[in-house]
User: Fold these one by one.
Assistant:
Number 1:
Amino acid sequence: MSSQELVTLNVGGKIFTTRFSTIKQFPASRLTRMLDGRDQEFKMDGGQIFVDRDGVLFSFILDFLRTQWLILPTDFSDYLRLREALFSEVDPLVDLLNQELLLQPRPVLVEVHFLSNTLAFFRVFGSCSKTTEMLTGRITVFIEQPSAPTWSSNSCPPQMTLLPSPQRPSYHDLVFQCGLDHVIDNQTGVRYVSIKPDNRKLANGTNVLGLLIDTLLMEGFHLVSTRTVSSEDKAECCSSERIKRPEALAMSKAVKPEAAIMPEQSQKKK
């Protein structure tokens, strides 16, 4: 590759070398005017163009020019200073950053409503339907009921019956029960709950609540609050939260190829 095809930029003391074509792909940008000599603020010095800006933030701008994706570390939080990109006047990038509310990490909320009784009742609400889908796939409910006696024995081992998955009244919530239950012919059965990857079958509502909270903690949630909704009905509500970063945010369809913003971790999965 000819050295005439390359340009070296010194941005705040950080050195970047890239193709002229990479910088000039957006003709209206200030970076293109810089290379064409139309912006008198920038001068060539020792084979480099010095740019008195933040070199760390410029690396994100250069990555965007190279890939059409704005790649941010998973722990990135300095969104306000990222508006440094306005200096570059790369319109597609500026349009993306102007969608400030969409760029901000958003909390995913899960509320577990627990009604303690002989037959404990659970209702789980999730602001993200994927969370309730995950829990539905992990929760299994069994019912154990006495078997009818036979001629050879007055007692038989109880039968364990697998019940349908937790009910989904909507995409965002699920309900299930555990504990003592009256089944056919006034016989009393026991509803057990198992939550993967834990193999225990639990019938006590308080134990099931603890296991459900532990499952959410392993998924990156943290417990925000617990409150008693009704002491008379023994109703409790536990709220959990997890910060969710935008996985992909498409920019204007007029930009070719389509550009988007994604965190570093999401890109590795692709």
Note: Confidence is low (pLDDT under 50) at residues 247-261, 265-270.
Number 2:
Amino acid sequence: MAETAVPDTAGLAEAITDPHAEFTKERFEVELEFLQCLANPWYINIIAQQGYFDKPEFINYLSYLQYWKKPEYVKFVVYPHALAFLDLLQTKEFREEIKKVDEATRIHGLQYHHWRWPNYQQNDEEEPQQQEE
């Protein structure tokens, strides 16, 4: 059975107990949890259908979350697809497309195949092919 990767939290205590820190432990945990929910295309689809992506405040919040890509924060992210989706959510085109169930289904399928067969590459016009080693 594969071991679950646990991020090194050595710097976390210092980052969240500093009285000059920008945010608290609770805020850190809430933002990390929300960010990691973005690794799920069905979650993104639901919040898109609920109109969150039509609110400028929410778009600004997604932009703000880009700080998770900094080395001192990225080490806490367990699901790296969350960061890829966070990047995609910066574009209006993706925010519109992900509202569609067919698009969420397509993306979920691509994500599943990426996790299931990491040694495969797929071109848009071709069926999955195994990488040469």
Note: The chain has a mean pLDDT of 79.
